[in-house]
């Protein structure tokens, strides 16, 4: 009867189904859809068959827990009502799960399904649009209610304004959730490569009392080592938990600092509201009673969504900087290089280029922001008062070099640009875009060039050309390529690579400065270098001998590299003393 087929009675999330032992006949079409052979099923069996159906998407939208892990008992789940139709995560045959309802899966059930190759987030991720929409609504109503209380508008006007912003709020919510889904997908895509960092991060969060991995069903160290051996990283459900705690932790650190009161950083407050409100109620927004909380939320979301889950954690480990210091340097670095704009360009390539290439491109933007953020932290040139001034000063000069630097690139970076241009050309994306994105691998060096040119009042373009020429002549580019291609894991290995990069930057700046001072009138950088080398024959012979030994080595030996760069440093200083 129709009552027996009523989806509200038999579909997961559709409501309380009738507990009946009456067998329901299945049509050939239903049997084919569910991939079953039985001619009839009782309701509980039918629900299990629906859950196990080989479909693209299984959508859960109601009440009850329908999927657990095979390692869990029904008693562990705590939902006795649905235990007769519940299945295990490894029994699902759908490609994707969408959780519109809460607690449709246990967390371990999600993880089991994900480890079997299924695509699933968590209920709080899939439902985040509703929460986000509610947050926007509450924040807007607080603002407008205050305007009503001050008699700036009446109740009718308030309601009209609320209704008029429906589309704008929807777009803000979709943007927030797109960004969050993107950071989840990238983290999952590279999860097996990042398993060691993620393991350390979880351990440190637990030590700090920020997270309880047992409560959140995060794997212990033994399981993580087993996954690493199997080439498996954290699953999307586990990454969702880590993402949530990361954002909460960063937000808390921001709230406990002066960041929300900073005139420049505080401007992010406006991005939480529709454009129609930003202009008309700009002054009222600055007095919003949740202003600090909104700013902290927006900044936390932005830094995590644009840079990844472990960005702040890695910089803390490498520099010892605080979260507010990292956030300040990140904002400066991101603004200088227009990182947000570049990311939006890459996101516009959805379905035009492969996902792998898209993530690769976003990875280069992230790497640029990471290195630039670290540069500002290491050089300690930022204060609360000079952020906007620093952004303006560097951004203008970076813009000047944007067209020049790609033509100066060499080594793997140059090869990458050429490869990327060919790939883009196949998809119809312009070479200019390819050139701009590929150049991010080299644009980081503009910070060093700008620093040298500004400090010694040198011509920026001439300094840039010489800086890149020095990299090639002295084989520093070769050093960078070898270091970049070394994939050894571990805290000290990572720190050694970053320290070597810092040393290379310092030496390249020293040589550039030395040559610029001596041959300021020479316009050809190659001639300047040739003259410098001719006047430093003995030091250069020693350097060539060291390079010969390095080139003959089949592996990257950090000890050899550090010694070699120390030798080069001594040679440069000795040359400067002779000619001073």
Tell me the layout of helices and strands.
Elements: H1 2-5, H2 7-10, E1 24-25, H3 28-34, E2 40-41, H4 43-51, E3 57-60, E4 67-68, H5 74-77, E5 87-88, E6 96-99, H6 107-115, H7 123-126, H8 128-149, H9 155-164, H10 166-189, H11 195-207, H12 221-229, H13 236-255, H14 275-280, H15 282-285, H16 291-307, H17 311-319, H18 323-336, H19 339-347, H20 355-379, H21 387-401, H22 405-408, H23 411-427, H24 431-438, H25 440-443, H26 446-455, H27 460-473, H28 476-484, H29 491-518, H30 525-534, H31 537-551, H32 558-579
Parallel strand pairs: 3-6, 4-5
Antiparallel strand pairs: 1-2
Helix pairs in contact: 8-10, 10-13, 10-16, 11-12, 13-16, 18-20, 18-21, 19-20, 23-24, 26-27, 27-29, 27-30, 28-29, 29-32, 31-32
Characterise the protein shown here.
With 580 residues, this protein is mainly α. Helices cover 65% and strands 3% of the residues. The chain is built from 32 helices and six strands. The chain has helices at 2-5, 7-10, 28-34, 43-51, 74-77, 107-115, 123-126, 128-149, 155-164, 166-189, 195-207, 221-229, 236-255, 275-280, 282-285, 291-307, 311-319, 323-336, 339-347, 355-379, 387-401, 405-408, 411-427, 431-438, 440-443, 446-455, 460-473, 476-484, 491-518, 525-534, 537-551, 558-579; strands spanning 24-25, 40-41, 57-60, 67-68, 87-88, 96-99. The strands form three sheets. It has a two-stranded antiparallel sheet. A two-stranded parallel sheet has the order 3-6. Strands 4-5 form a two-stranded parallel sheet. Helix 5 (74-77) links the parallel strand 4 and strand 5. Helix 10 crosses helix 13 and helix 13 (236-255) crosses helix 16 (291-307). It is globular, with a radius of gyration of 29 Å. Mean pLDDT is 88; it is low at 1-18.
């Amino acid at each position: 009867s129709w009552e027996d087929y009523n989806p509200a009675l038999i579909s997961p999330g559709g409501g309380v189904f009738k507990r009946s032992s009456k067998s329901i006949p299945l049509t050939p079409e239903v049997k084919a859809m569910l991939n079953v052979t039985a001619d009839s099923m009782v309701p509980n069996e039918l629900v299990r068959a629906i859950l196990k159906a080989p479909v693209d998407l299984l959508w859960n939208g109601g009440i009850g827990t329908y999927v657990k892990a095979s390692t869990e008992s029904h008693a562990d789940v705590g939902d006795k009502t649905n235990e007769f139709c519940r299945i295990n995560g490894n029994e699902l045959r759908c490609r994707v799960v969408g959780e519109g309802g809460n607690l449709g899966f246990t967390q371990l059930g999600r993880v089991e399904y994900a480890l079997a190759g299924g695509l699933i987030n968590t209920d709080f991720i899939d439902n985040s649009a509703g929460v986000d929409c509610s947050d926007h609504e509450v924040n807007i109503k607080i603002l407008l209610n205050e305007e009503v209380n001050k008699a700036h508008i009446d109740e009718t006007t308030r309601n009209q304004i609320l209704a008029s912003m429906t589309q704008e709020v929807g777009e803000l919510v979709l943007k927030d959730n797109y960004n969050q889904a993107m950071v989840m997908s990238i983290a999952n895509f590279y999860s097996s490569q990042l398993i060691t960092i993620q393991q350390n991060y979880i351990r440190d969060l637990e030590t700090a009392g920020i997270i309880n991995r047992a409560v959140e069903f995060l794997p212990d160290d033994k399981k993580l080592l087993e996954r690493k051996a199997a080439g498996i990283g954290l699953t999307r459900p586990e990454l969702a938990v880590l993402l949530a705690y990361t954002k909460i932790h960063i937000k808390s650190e921001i709230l406990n600092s002066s960041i929300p009161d900073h005139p420049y950083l505080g401007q992010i407050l406006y991005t939480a509201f529709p454009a129609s409100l930003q202009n008309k109620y700009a002054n009222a927004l600055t007095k919003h009673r949740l202003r600090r909380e909104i700013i902290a939320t927006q900044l936390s979301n932005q830094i995590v969504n644009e840079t990844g889950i472990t960005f702040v954690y890695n910089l803390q480990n490498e520099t010892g900087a605080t979260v507010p210091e990292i956030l300040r340097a990140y904002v400066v670095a991101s603004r200088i290089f227009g990182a947000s704009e570049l990311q939006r360009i890459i996101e516009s390539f959805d379905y035009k280029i492969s996902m792998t290439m898209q993530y690769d491109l976003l990875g280069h933007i992230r790497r640029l922001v990471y290195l630039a953020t670290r540069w500002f932290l290491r050089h300690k040139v930022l204060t609360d008062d000079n952020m906007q001034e620093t952004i303006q000063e560097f951004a203008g000069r970076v813009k000047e070099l944007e067209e020049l630097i790609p033509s100066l690139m060499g080594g793997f970076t140059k090869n990458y640009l050429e490869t990327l241009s060919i790939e883009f050309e196949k998809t119809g994306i312009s070479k200019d875009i390819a050139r701009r994105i590929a150049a991010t691998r080299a644009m980081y060096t503009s910070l060093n060039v700008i620093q040298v040119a500004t400090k010694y009042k040198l011509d920026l373009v001439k300094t840039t050309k010489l800086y890149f020429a020095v990299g090639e002549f002295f084989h520093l580019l070769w050093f960078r390529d070898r270091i970049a291609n070394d994939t050894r894991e571990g805290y000290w290995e990572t720190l050694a690579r970053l320290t070597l990069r810092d040393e290379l930057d310092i030496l390249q700046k020293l040589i550039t400065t030395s040559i610029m001072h001596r041959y300021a009138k020479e316009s050809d950088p190659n001639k300047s270098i040739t003259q410098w080398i001719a006047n430093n024959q003995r030091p250069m012979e020693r350097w060539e001998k060291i390079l010969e030994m390095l080139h003959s080595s089949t592996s990257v030996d950090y000890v050899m590299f550090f010694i070699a760069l120390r030798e080069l440093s001594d040679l440069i200083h000795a040359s400067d003393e002779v000619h001073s």
